[in-house]
User: Fold this.
Amino acid sequence: MVQAQGFETDFWKDANLRKGWDDIVPGEPRKTLPYLLTQEAIALYCKAVGETNPLYLDEKAAKAGPHGGLVAPPSIHILLMFSCTPADDWMRSPGTINAGQSWSYNIHARPGDTIRLEARALDKFIKRQRLFVVHDNVFFNQHGQVICSGRGQTIRPA
Amino acid sequence: MNNDFDKLSEGDTIDGPSFAVSRESIRLFCDASLDYNPLHLDDDYMKGDFGRTNFGGIIMHGMNNFGLISRMITDWIPPGAVHRRLETRWVKPVRPGDTIRPAGTIKTRQTTQKSRWVLLDVVVRNQKDEPVAVGEAMVEFPP
Assistant:
């Protein structure tokens, strides 16, 4: 199994340290971590979704392409969400169910970028006895440029 | 279909790639996304109930649908066009053994002060032709 170095894959570990629905304060920033995006991580993500676009994978072709070099696919934020948050972040609580997401894309992330996340819960509510949280997330590169921004809803474990 | 903005019409369709879901593909997505939620890994855990829902076994990441739709759009757009937005919600769990395929339909074209846009309805269907994810996408065609 390929894993990011140092990443804790056992989401049960220290699960009791993570905030539950009752503890989440809408508006309060989440703790985040800078993340160095590598070509290896991009290639692994591409493999997982069957991406074969040379703009993401072929350095020579990408250099001659519209971005002047390799870029990551827009949906790389799927990886960035977990790589930019610490092990005690409540998104890792076992049983978290993703109910839907929307993302807007500004510029591509590139291999070698150091990615920064600003994130918070925007809202929380109860619907049909389920505990929902609305999240707000923005990823930036090392130049302070917005890569993408997104909003999601998760159903929290009871 | 022709991808030139002026030649696109409401109702034009896009077909995305077929994707065979397996325990291995789900595990690979765990490694690629770093999302190791036991929903996607632990059969024993998934025997339990989630409120009124029982999934009966591990399920694919909802965001795997998202990645497939995004791939379909970036494969479709011509040079110079930009995949600007994607919104999805999950309507049915996807399990190992399922085969899913994204598709899109142009809903409308719109010109703003500085650019041109195509809005698409998107859907991912399983092998029974049941929708498992639905949403909307926005593609910019800069003039």
User: Anything to note?
Assistant: Strands of chain A lie at 35-36, 97-105, 114-127, 130-140, 146-156. Chain A has one domain: 27-156. Residues 27-156 of chain A form a domain with the Thiol Ester Dehydrase; Chain A fold (CATH 3.10.129.10).
